[in-house]
Each structure stands twice: as structure tokens, then as C-alpha cells.
Design brief:
This protein has about 475 residues and is an alpha/beta fold. The chain folds into three domains: about 120 residues, Gyrase A, domain 2 (2-Layer Sandwich), CATH 3.30.1360.120; about 120 residues, Four Helix Bundle (Hemerythrin (Met), subunit A) (Up-down Bundle); about 160 residues, P-loop containing nucleotide triphosphate hydrolases (Rossmann fold, 3-Layer(aba) Sandwich). About 45% of the residues lie in helices and about 15% in strands. It has 15 helices and 14 strands. It has a six-stranded mixed sheet with strand order 3-4-5-2-1-6. Helix 5 packs antiparallel against helix 6 and helix 7 packs antiparallel against helix 8. The longest helix has 29 residues.
Amino acid sequence: MLNNSQTALTSTIAAIATPMGRGGVGVIRLSGPNSYQIALALTGRQAFKPRFAHFCRFYDSDDTVIDEGLVLYFPAPHSFTGEDVIELQGHGGMILQQQLLTRVFELGANQAVAGEFSARAFDNDKLDLVQAEAIADAIDATSVAAAKSAMRSLTGEFSQKINALLEQLIQLRLYVEAAIDFPDEEGVDFLADEHIAKQLRQVCEQLNNVLATAKQGQLLRDGVSVVIAGRPNAGKSSLLNRLAGQERAIVTDIAGTTRDILQETIVLNGLTLNLTDTAGLRQTDDIVEQAGIERARQAITQADLLLMVYDAHREHEPLRLATELFGSLPNANSILMIANKIDLSDNHQNLPKQFSSQEQIYHPVYVSCKYDTGLEELVNQICDKVGFHPPENSLIARTRHLDALRRTQMALQEADEQLHLFHAGELVAESLRQAQISLNEITGEFTADDLLGKIFGSFCIGK
């Protein structure tokens, strides 16, 4: 993982746990067997009372005062990491913090790497992997909804759902494997026993509920990549400015004003949009504009959702326009057609509500960026298109959680197939075992060390 087991048991680590810069308070955190002795040497005190704030001066090797502040001592195992932990709360000046940290290193501590405190907490069973990841997700949250969801995961709600599902799965495995090892003396075929099929259905239903929750949590955490595209002067940059709530893009009546991609991260109804405005798609001899159009096409191919903006006053065949712009008609699930400038239409209420092509139905959203008409409906349509409707008690989730849940789902489907089509008891048991392994990856019970290294390596230093 981050350290070999011997080093993890013997070393004392330290790091600045607050952002570098000018501030009222700066915190340095120590964890490990020598933390307490280092704090005594640093302050000249004889002892520290656990979980009590002590006002101290911090001394350099020549007894000059580096800084003064508070010392808190959390003895093992009742600490965040499960080890002896010391927190030094001094002034938040960058020079003072670096001087204090240097002195801590001189007294025997080692520099902590990214995520090492959380990794030690995980190793010492103070939290599981879902809770450890939720720490980083809470710090990186881009919306209030994401922060609240991360805190619910941190307090163990997501882990409880996974553990409850695991318990159901384990009980089913025990029943199946016991029936294989100890067949009924009367020759009853246990595979025809409705109990197994019923239990399997219940596990699948519970898994589907957890998966639906995780999908919403993953959208809360990661947001979606949204690209605005269309002809020049359709109102793409105006739409970006309206959604962002500020003038981020230059808007003029001159075609080709936007020549490069412009990116903005915004939060709408709790959903984080990584929004990209692109150059208008058209044939041009302008070399600079051609480069912008090429970048626009690259961004389009990488988008989770494409917003095609067109002039509703001039363009009445959006499907034909989409085919011309993108080379083929995008799938209805990946594009939202936005008819802008409806303020120029005499009777926009009678404009078509939908367009159809090859059994696909496209529902345009009619807006006026000039007068902010229809923007609320547009936001609702964006959320509908990506399936974002988190409940109030939503939980944060990551892509790897979804992957593990989907592999669990596939294993359960295989178990159902082996049960009902082939009546192969041993294969049912093996599929259930694979389902349990995949599910255990979420909380970290059967997670490979290299994956753990990547997860904790994405954390900030000092956490």
C-alpha cells in the first residue's frame, strides 16, 4: 500500500493538515508511537492529559520560541488513526508552520505522504474504505448536496447498506453450500426448493436499490460533462452566461466570436455540470477558427451530454441540422436540443413539442437567453436526461463502487441462470462466491493493495 507493514507499525508521521497560506490557525498532525515524546520534547512539558487542550510554546533546538498555541493528545486506540495522535495548533503563517514542521522532523517524525493518515485509520479498522473515500469526497465537494451525501457516507450509512446486502448474500451461500454438502436424505432436489429462488430474488432486489442509490451518489460526486454546440450566433455563449449566472463568454452579433473552448463548472439543482462552450460549427477559411472548431469536435466526442443550441426563428428542422453538424444524428439519450431566440417568434407556443427519427424521439426545449425564458425547464430537462434525481438521504459514491455493484449484479444473474436453466448447484455456489468477492471490494475487505495505493494517493497531504 503506502508503506510496508513494518514501517507502518514503527514510524511516526507528520504533516501540515491545514491549507498553506496566511490564516488565524495552522494545524500540524502527528501519528505514530513517538508522537507523544516528540510533543513533550517540542514543548518542554512533562505530560499531556488525553483529549485536553494545552496552551504551550513550541521550542527550537536552541530553546528559542518558534511559535505558541495548543497541543491536543489522543492516545491509541482512541484516535482517528488508531495510533497515538498529536495535533499542534499554531498560527497560520506559512513560515511559522514550516519552521515548526522542520523541528518535528528533527525530533524523529517522517513526512506523511498523501492520504497516509486515512490509510492508517483503514489499516487499524477505524473506518472502512467507503468511509475513508468519503473523507476526500467531503473535502472536494462542489455542492451542499454533495457535501451532505459525503458526510452520510462518512458516518457509515453507505457501508451499512453494503454490509446488510453482504449478510443476505452470505446466508444464501451458506444455505446453498450446506445443501450441496449435506443433501436431503429423502432425495428432495434442493435446487427446486423455492426458498433458494426467493432468497436470490430478495438479494437481487436489494442490490438494485443500492445500485440506484450509488448511481445518484456518483453523479453528485463527479457531476457530468456537458458540451454546448451549434452554429455560430445560435446563442451558445449566451446560454453559458445565463447558466453560470455571470458574463463568462464574450457575446456579439459577429459570427465566429467564440474561437476556442471555454470551460466552467456550475451547480444546478445540486448537479455539478462541467460545462464547455465551443466554437460555432461551420465551414471557414480562418485558420484560428478552424483550430477552435476541431477542438469543439473533440470535446463533443467526450461529452456525457450534448446541448445543441439552434436559432428557433430561422431553423425549423433540428434533426437535419444535427446530422449536418455532427456527421450523424446523435442518440436521443445523449443530446438535448435547445431552441433559442423564441422571443423572435410570433407564436412560439405552437412550435413542435417533439421530433422523431428511426423510432427515436427528441424533445426540444424552447428558451430565450435574452429574456431568461425557459431556463428553469432547461435545467429540469438536463437533470432528467442524465437521470439525476437524488433523494434527500442520498449517499456519495464513486465509479469503482458502481463497477463493483454491476459485477455483483452480473454474478447474481449467472447464479439465477445456473439455478433455473441448468440446476447446477456447484455453479450456483460459485456465482454467489464471486458476487460476495465483488461486493467486498467496496468496503475494502478484499481490495488489492495497488488499488488502495491509488485511492489514498488521491487524498491531500495531512489527511
